[in-house]
């Protein structure tokens, strides 16, 4: 029972943290959500599957480029 309560508590803290981050950001947008920005997530240098930009183009990526 303690494990279930601990799990629910940790999940509640995580959801609260995400909620605060969204609430604190302008228009509720996350910055830098393209995986092609990270060399760890994109070791082959493939284009972003969401917006189609190459990793070189993502260096100057603005938050509103996906809308």
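^ Assign residues to that structure.
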């Amino acid at each position: 029972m303690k494990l279930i309560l601990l799990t629910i508590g940790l999940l509640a803290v995580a959801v609260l943290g995400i909620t605060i981050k969204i609430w604190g950001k302008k228009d509720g947008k996350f910055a830098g959500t393209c995986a092609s920005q990270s060399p760890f997530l994109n070791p082959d240098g493939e284009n972003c599957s969401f917006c189609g930009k190459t990793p070189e183009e993502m260096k100057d990526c603005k938050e509103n480029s996906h809308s």
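Residues 20 and 28 are 10 Å apart (CA to CA).
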